[in-house]
Amino acid sequence: MDDTDFDMRAAMAESVRGREGAWALVEGFAAHWGQPLGPGAGFTDAELDAAETRLGLRLPAALREAYRLFGRRADLTSNQDVLLTPDELYVLDGALVYRAENQGCAHWGVLLEELGREDPPTVVRPDLFDKSEERWEPWEERFSTAAAVMALYEKALEDDDLSLELDPEELPEGVEELPPLGRGLRWYLGRDVLVMVMEGFAVGRARTEQAAEDF
Fold first, then answer.
1. Domains of the chain, each with CATH number or no CATH
2. What is the DSSP string of 100-169?
3. What is the pLDDT of residues 120-162, one digit of tens each?
4. What span, in angstroms and rounded, lies between the C-alpha atoms of 97 and 31?
5. Residue 88: CA atoms inside 13 Å, Cβ hemisphere, count?
6. Which residues face 177 on adjacent strands?
7. Which of the ends of the chain has fewer CB neighbours closer than 10 A, N or C?
């Protein structure tokens, strides 16, 4: 697919319908807003099999697919928070942990009782001063949705010459709101500019240096 043919709005809307749509969004987004996914972008089946053996459990199909597709692409997984590598996956209080907030303030996982589902729901666990109050709380309804959101979120927060400073109350003229994707997130698209808004905080990303200069 030529990256000029990528329809961000349609891909985001389709991504919440299931795994195929989620992975199509990640592939199209990676090519359009960065570099296409290619050999070496993901982990191998052997590495994922080794993680299963070490943990003594089976990984859900959606988790394996995400890791194979783009698990090694730091620009889509680890600019702000961190996708754990297969040999870092671990179990905590009844859940398989796959992602960590960059200062350890939260962890994301899949409940062990849901691992038999191909595309299970995800949960989040805030790190609290009073550990007795910590609980796994619902996050995204599908792992594939959580993984697609992660790719967009981490790319939006990549700090380079294409990142843009934004006031959430004064978004650029001409941007249009995209379909909802991700808890607490809003997305906007302009001419070669993507904007993410969360909790009164906004970041932008340009596709090209010219778009960044124009902004």
1. 3-153 (3.40.1580.10), 159-214 (no CATH)
2. E-TTSSEEEEEEGGGTTSSS---EEEE--SSGGG---EE--SSHHHHHHHHHHHHHHT--STTEEE-BTT
3. 999 999 887 777 778 999 999 999 999 999 999 999 999 999 9
4. 28
5. 12
6. 188
7. N
